[in-house]
Amino acid sequence: MIETVGGAVPADALGRVSTNEHVLTDSRHLQRPTREGLQLEGLMRPDIVGDLRWSYMSLSDNLTLDDPDTAVAELALARTAGLDTIVEATSWGMGPRHAELPDIARRSGVNIVAAYGGYIDKTLPAWWRDQSEDDLENAYTTALTVAVPGTGFRAGLLGLLGTSAEITPAERRGLRAAGRAAHAAGAAVSIRLDGAARRAPEVVEILTGQGLSARRILFCNMDKVLDAAYVGDVADTGAVVEFAFGSENYFADGARDATDGERLAFLVRLLEDHPTAAVTMSTSVWTKGQLARHGGMGYAHVVRRIVPALGRAGVPAQVLDDMLVRTPARLLDRG
């Protein structure tokens, strides 16, 4: 069975799954000036889209998803396009609003599996960051087996746990605690690695050292590091690797997203070179600029555009179903 915000459901009821999305979140603390040193102000609007593509973190309003009605409408569009389930991965440090998720799931018609965890050190509120390892393990166990605090549902997995370029003591405590709690509950852990580092093997070692199977580890946004040898080695550990499509923005001079063309070509090669790799996909929506109403690709991008493109590139239908349906269900199924 798989824990959703509407209760436990059979694994075969999930359908097509996006394994790393955000519905309500707040990352305004990550705002930075434009690449030219300017400050953008005001709300999301058409005339600012070009500025954001050039300096994506420069508008405060872009860095929050704050309206449940908008979330319902955007997810309903994705449901119409064929997306059945999302993993909502907003953790502490990203402004989670867990209690509002069941209503959004009901109104949109999309299953929501809620993750629970703490993000990268620099984003964490002090009350979370300064917890002991035992306290973190207790918090994770409670979320997985009793309920996410302030809600009536259990977490479907732990995450999104973040790691910095150098894993900090707080992040290391969180990883160890999550590994033990997830192992005991038969659950998975999702990880967002710093794109400038190559920390996945170390994270696998930490988590498996607490008893967690590598097959219960999901590395999100692996498209941030399109290094064939590195990603191939991660896939060969048995961990699940996720590719997020739809965002093609600059964050600083010399720091940009890959294009979807680059992601597609890389994924096709990975599937050819590592045919047993466990792969999932997402759009990793976490900002207003990614929503369809603001000119973004929206939550439906993978099912509407990426899956057909992979099919045209020769990826067999069975492999596409593995990435969208079977692999996410195996990852999330707690028996």
Summarize the structure in words.
The protein is α/β, with parallel strands linked by helices. The chain has a single domain, classed as TIM Barrel (Alpha-Beta Barrel). It contains 11 helices and 14 strands. It has helices at 49-54, 68-81, 101-108, 126-129, 133-145, 169-185, 200-208, 228-236, 260-273, 301-312, 317-332; strands at residues 2-4, 7-9, 17-21, 25-26, 64-65, 85-88, 111-116, 157-162, 189-192, 217-220, 240-244, 250-252, 255-256, 278-282. The strands form 4 sheets. It has an 8-stranded parallel β-sheet. Strands 1-2 form a two-stranded antiparallel ribbon. Strands 4-5 form a two-stranded antiparallel sheet. A hairpin with a 2-residue loop joins β12 and β13. The longest helix has 17 residues, at 169-185. The radius of gyration is 18 Å and the shape is globular.
| Poorly predicted tracts of residues | none
Strand content: 15-25%
What Rg, in angstroms, do the CA atoms define? Answer: 18 Å
CATH architecture: Alpha-Beta Barrel
CATH class: Alpha Beta
Tell me the number of strands. 14
The percent range for helix content is 25-40%
Structural classification: alpha/beta
Within CATH, the superfamily carries the name Metal-dependent hydrolases
- Distance, first to last CA: 5 Å
What does the main sheet amount to?
A: 8 strands, parallel
* SS summary, helix count: 11
CATH topology: TIM Barrel
Instruction: Please indicate the count of domains.
Output: 1
> Helix and strand string, N-terminal first?
EEEEHEHEHEHHEHEHEHEEEHEHH
Mean pLDDT figure: 96
Shape: globular
Give the strand order, joined by hyphens, for the main sheet.
Answer: 3-6-7-8-9-10-11-14
